[in-house]
Specification:
With about 900 residues, this protein is α+β, with helices and mostly antiparallel strands. The chain has 31 helices and 24 strands. The strands form five sheets. Strands 1, 2, 3, 4, 5, 6, 7, 8 and 11 form a nine-stranded antiparallel beta sheet that branches.
Length: about 900
């Protein structure tokens, strides 16, 4: 047994050695076979890779089909902090993982889309997994950003399209430049697309995909970076040691060293060579070697794709170059650069094979497959993680502010806008949204010229208006451009300036009832006009108001009776108030003729109160009327029984009425107050017409200071009430502060359009304060002539303030100038206003008292003399 044991052991050893040899031989044979048939191995590997990639693509496409889109719209007050933006970035990174477990990593991303297609300066959309919608819908930006569910965007094919993918160049571990929030980091991108022209098919879109960094890829990248840092440190140490040895050898071989050794007294000091200690490689610090990749928190991978398109050759390429320059703003030791190769004048990139197909797949499906270098921290992307802020200067596109088209009744001319590309266009607002307009600026700054251009454009488009100008300068300026045969039947001139030896004057009876007015409305309008012009109220002048109201009530009743009996030419005028109060015979006849038309309270007042009033109680009422009668122009204008002026008819028939009151003295202010109050009454009377049938009408008030001095409460009421009746006021003034507070507050509160030219800073400050002092009064004060800053309402949102050049009539309406037809227009305007020579109207006004007295005598009932309503005893 003992002799067999070594034999068995040797045999087992031989068997094991044979098996090992056979295994090695088999492996060698297999390797030799694979070497001879390598194509089969490559085919198998390729087949497995293809099947795996196809499966991943199918799963990624299925996951991408369940994406959602949100559009973020910021207002002009949006001013986020860095912390708010950072929190938004954290939300985006978290939402990128809200996918099913089976979704491939390329589908786990959130995409920020910055798009300019002419509909908005820069649309800001977020697309991502459907599971992240609830997380992304509530932003840390507060109410200054509106989040809307967005629909898919379908683009029409463009003739020319260029594509680009941007990757991070430079040191991998270095961050991008820290761009401040003021001005907005998006400003370079907005400027790059500011000259985009939608009519040429221009389109520019930037897509930034954000994906949470995979742990294994981050570890691999860190190992690679640490290994590279250590190798670099070892090479640096070896290089330093080599230079150190060379330096030591050079010193010992020098003559100075040898002489030093010979002169040295120390024995043995010259024997041997100096011992050189090589430098030791210093320890590599992870924070220094890894840079922004040292920490796991808030580290993401990004993919930046850009596409530009146009139907005009060269514009897409130029747009891409502008965007590339815009991204240079974010560059520091690390920067964004286009991926590809340049071969002389040619560039091979995302537009060419073999990368174009992959670019289009990622673009269409929203897949994120970023380059290995695109690692960033959320802090580096703060400029792209929010919509444009209040510090971003947005261009005004045709979709924001429509282009004026001559003859379009839906548009109102506002001015000439100069775009970022230097092109100019006449811009407008929509007429139905321009409810009230206020223009402020110094004399000669262009505010009246702008209003005239707007009024002339509105007139040619078929709209009705009344232009009230106390100085009459606007009428000769406008006639050249209104002298068209199609407009002449609609134009009427009410000129009270009395120019010439025997001027022609129109007529108006504020008390006239031949035009179908309501009696109480007429009485109220005249009494309120008096009170407004003379500063009467129930505290300071209650008796005067009572006397005037009672007198007007009787005279309106007389006129109503005259019209109903078919004798409107026998109506009383405002000058008959004196006869009613001071002439006992006339008063007795008038009260007797209309006794059945007066209510019991009015009759009781005339019977019981009027006889007790002292004679001097009537002076305060009669003095203003005496001043009106002393002026031959106003006497002729207001002294006719059947006045032609009817602003309600002008509203409904789209007339173009020019009213020139003739001055700003006390008498003129009273007349202006009567006209203004009548306009308010006429507009309010449109309540008898359904709202959809009310014809838009636009009063233009030049020199609001003059007009509001006569009727402050009336003008304020216009700015507050007339919108309901489709009567839209446009007012111009030199100084907002000189307007009565009621007018100033009403017009600023309700103004759809607010404009200012240059002027003193104190005069401009109230307007710029409404804009938050952006632009500042200093900037507005230094503008040139005919330059305006204007804020407007378009599609329910405010546009501006933007700088416009005021339209000059000789430029914008040069094609409509008809100087040869101005005399014909003057004749037609006076004929439409039924203006007659002054002497003829004066004679008629002088005889009107007799005609009214005769009418009253004929219609006074029998026995009227028995009723004693006179003050003969008191006067006697």
């Amino acid at each position: 047994m003992d002799s067999a044991a070594p034999y068995l052991t040797d045999r087992a050893t031989d068997t094991a050695a044979g098996q090992a040899l056979g295994l090695v031989t088999g492996l060698v044979d297999a390797a030799d076979w694979l070497y001879d048939h390598w194509y089969l191995l490559a085919l198998a590997i390729g087949l497995c890779w293809g099947v795996g990639d196809l499966l991943v693509r199918r799963l990624a496409a299925k996951a991408s089909a369940e994406r959602m889109a949100l559009e973020l719209v910021s207002n002009r007050h949006f001013d986020p902090s860095l912390e708010e933006i950072f929190r938004r970035g954290v939300q985006l990174a978290r939402a990128s993982t809200a996918m099913p477990w089976w979704a491939p990593r390329r589908a786990k991303a959130v995409q920020i889309r910055l798009r300019a297609d002419g509909s908005a300066p820069l649309r800001y959309r977020i697309e991502g997994p459907a599971g992240g919608e609830r997380l992304l819908s509530i932003t840390p930006f507060g109410p200054d950003v509106t989040v809307n569910r967005a629909r898919p965007i379908v683009d029409k094919p463009r003739t020319h399209t260029v594509r680009a993918e941007f990757i991070l160049r430079g040191k991998l571990t270095s961050p991008l430049r820290e761009v401040p929030l003021t001005p907005d980091p998006l400003q370079p991108l907005v400027d790059a697309v500011a000259d985009l022209r939608a009519e040429l098919g221009d389109l520019a879109e930037i897509r930034l995909d954000i994906q949470r960094a995979p742990k294994w890829a981050l570890r691999a990248r860190r190992l690679q970076l640490m290994s590279a840092a250590r190798r670099s440190e070892r090479r640096e140490a070896q290089r330093s040691a080599r230079w150190l040895r060379q330096d030591a050898s050079g010193i010992e071989d020098s003559l100075g060293w040898q002489m030093q050794q010979l002169l040295s007294d120390r024995p043995g000091s010259g024997s041997g060579r100096r011992l050189v200690m090589p430098p030791v490689p210093r320890r590599v610090e992870p924070a220094e070697a890894l840079g922004k990749l040292a920490e796991d928190d808030h580290l993401v991978r990004v993919q930046l794709l850009v596409m530009c398109a146009s139907n005009t050759e060269g514009r897409a390429q130029a747009r891409l170059a502008q965007l590339q320059a815009a991204f240079d703003v974010f560059g520091g030791r690390s920067r964004w650069a286009m991926r590809g190769w340049r071969l002389g004048p040619w560039r091979v990139g995302a537009d060419h094979w073999p990368t174009r197909h992959g670019f289009e797949r990622r673009w269409n499906l929203g897949h994120c497959q970023p380059p290995r270098a695109n690692w960033v921290r959320l802090e580096e992307l703060c400029g792209l993680l929010k919509p444009p802020t209040s510090h971003c200067r947005l261009p005004v596109l045709a979709g924001d502010l429509p282009t004026f088209s001559f003859g379009d009744p839906e548009l109102l001319l506002q001015g000439i806008y100069r775009g970022p590309d230097g092109r100019e266009r006449m811009v407008a607002t929509y007429a139905e949204e321009t409810l009230f307009e206020v223009g402020v600026g110094k004399a000669g700054g262009g505010k009246t010229e702008r209003a005239l251009a707007q009024a002339i454009g509105w007139a040619h488009a078929g709209g009705g208006l009344i232009f009230v100008d106390p100085h009459r300068d606007s009428w000769p300026r406008a006639t050249t451009f209104l002298a068209h045969e199609t407009l002449m039947p609609r134009i009427a001139l009410i000129d009270l300036n009395g120019l010439g030896p025997n001027p022609r004057v129109s007529s108006w009876n504020p008390l006239g009832m031949h035009q179908g007015q309501a009696a109480h409305e007429v009485v109220e309008a005249i009494a309120d006009a008096y009170a407004s012009a003379l500063a009467w109220d129930d505290v300071t002048a209650p008796r005067a108001l009572t006397i005037l109201t009672a007198a007007l009530t009787v005279l309106v009743a007389v006129n109503e009776a005259a019209c109903q009996t078919g004798r409107p030419e026998d109506q009383a005028t405002i000058f008959h108030v004196r006869a009613l109060l001071a002439d006992a015979k006339f008063r007795k006849a008038a009260l007797a003729a209309v006794a059945d038309r007066l209510d019991e309270e009015t009759r009781s007042w005339w019977q019981a109160v009027f006889p007790t009033l002292p004679p001097d109680a009537f002076a305060v009422v009669l003095n203003p009327i005496a001043r009106l009668a002393a002026n031959p122009i106003t006497r002729a204008f207001l002294g006719q029984p059947m006045g032609v002026y009817n602003v309600r008819a002008a509203m409904d028939s789209k007339m173009i009425v020019w009213v020139c009151p003739g001055g700003n003295g006390p008498t003129d202010r009273l007349l202006t107050a009567l006209l203004a109050r009548d306009l308010l009454r006429a507009a309010r009377s449109r309540r008898d017409t359904p709202e959809e049938k009310r014809v838009p009408f636009r009063p233009y008030f030049d020199e609001l200071i003059t007009l509001t001095g006569a009727a402050p409460e009336t003008i304020a009421s216009m700015f507050e009430d007339l919108r309901k009746y489709r009567c839209h006021i446009h007012g111009m003034t030199q100084l907002l502060a000189r307007l009565p507070s009621a007018v100033r507050l009403s017009l600023v509160q309700n103004a759809s359009t607010l404009a200012t030219t240059a002027g003193s800073k104190s005069a401009i400050a109230p307007i710029t304060a409404e804009w938050g002092d952006t632009p500042s009064p200093d900037r507005v004060a230094t503008m040139g002539r005919f330059e305006h800053f204007v804020s407007m309402n378009v599609h329910g949102r405010r546009i501006g303030p933007i700088q416009l050049r005021g339209p000059h009539l000789n430029d914008v309406f040069a094609a409509q100038a008809r100087p040869k037809y101005v005399p014909a227009l003057e004749r037609a305007a006076q004929a439409n206003a039924q203006a007659l020579p002054l002497d003829q109207l004066t004679d008629r006004a002088a005889g009107q008292l007799g005609r009214v007295a005769a009418f009253l005598g004929e219609h006074s009932p029998a026995g009227a003399d028995a009723v004693d309503l006179s003050k003969e005893k008191e006067f006697g």
